[in-house]
Amino acid sequence: MGDRSTVTDSSGGTKKSPRGGALAVETLRLGREYRARRGPAVLALNDVSMEVEQGEVHGLLGPNGAGKSTLMKILSTVLLPTSGTGRVLGYDLATEHRRIRPLLGIVFGGERGLYPRLTARQNLRYWAALYGISAMNGSRRTDALLEELGLSARADDRVETFSVGMRQRLHLARGIIGDPRVLLLDEPTNGLDPLAARQLRELIQRLAGEGRTVLIATHDLAEAEVLCDRVTMINHGRVVAAEAPKTLARLVHREERVRIRAGSSLLDQVRALPGVLGIRAADDGTSVVSAAHQEAVGRVLAFVVQHGVTEIRTELPSLEEVYLRLVHREETRSVVPR
Ligand SMILES: Nc1ncnc2c1ncn2[C@@H]1O[C@H](COP(=O)(O)OP(=O)(O)OP(=O)(O)O)[C@@H](O)[C@H]1O
């Protein structure tokens, strides 16, 4: 499968992000309204501005109905925005979809995109042909992908006999057979057992390591935390945050944590240190000390080390906590009358 050299630069003049990287995806005040024959129109996306750098693994997070699928469909050029603009690798989403399509790999899962009565090999060769890859190259690429995704032994079995995990891997193979520069994945590890999910994550990381950009819509926050360089959280069609998971945790919680294993009298002394917000007992018998700022963390660390504590870990709130805080805050806001 492709090494860096296979990722060619054929973009339409890409812009740089404020962080200095060339942009794979950018949207500016993108909106999408669905108009029903009856009933009110639904504003699925509202002023969405986001940036994804080339080579980045970027998570798109949000509750059900937030607008993730709508955004993915617009980025994959199957749906037009009703307002705003967007570019993929420098090409305009509304007017240059023919240029964008060959650069994209789309994995939306479910039953779409695979022919169950064909074998895995036949499916991939068919998709290779659709991407305009010659029969010889298509066959070579098919073999390499089946091998890489652990499907070689079942290459000539019909897809209808495949497990959920095998189909999911085949979906990914289909998505990358055209050697795309940008991969759009919707819930890629949905329905996979933990081992298969982990293997798929490793593959996604490898694909990004080859210089490809990966945009993943997921409900799995732990997955987003390990996989994504940055995440964009959306709720009710609006961007509520866009940052690296760790940065988000700092911005949202403004607190740091130190996990220690210590007796109750020592914990009482730690609780009294300046800048300590509280201490919570964890299930594994350790105690989690919340500190207001880095200086307080330093104070706690120095104190516990001085008193012979050996099990010490600093940590940030999880992405799940950040998500709940941000989305919950939005929900609370949205019930306040305007
Ligand atoms: N074709 C459509 N016609 C009318 N409304 C739609 C259509 N597609 C989506 N919507 C509405 O737009 C909003 C956003 O939907 P979307 O499917 O993009 O959300 P999502 O974040 O992908 O949700 P989920 O995680 O449940 O898939 C929802 O209110 C949904 O009901």
From TrEMBL:
Gene3D superfamilies with a match to the protein in the record: P-loop containing nucleotide triphosphate hydrolases
GO molecular function, one term: ATP binding
Annotated keywords: Antibiotic resistance, ATP-binding, Nucleotide-binding, Transport
Listed InterPro entries: AAA+_ATPase, ABC_transporter-like_ATP-bd, ABC_transporter_ATP-binding, P-loop_NTPase
Disordered as annotated region, ranges: 1-21
Cellular compartments annotated: Cell membrane
Source species, domain of life: Bacteria
Domain ABC transporter: from-to ranges: 28-261
PROSITE patterns xrefs: ABC_TRANSPORTER_2
Gene Ontology biological process terms from the UniProt entry: response to antibiotic
UniProt feature, compositional bias: Polar residues: 1-14
Membrane topology: Peripheral membrane protein
Example of a GO cellular component annotation carried by this entry: plasma membrane
Family of this protein: Belongs to the ABC transporter superfamily.
Protein name: ABC transporter ATP-binding protein
Natural source organism: Streptomyces parvus
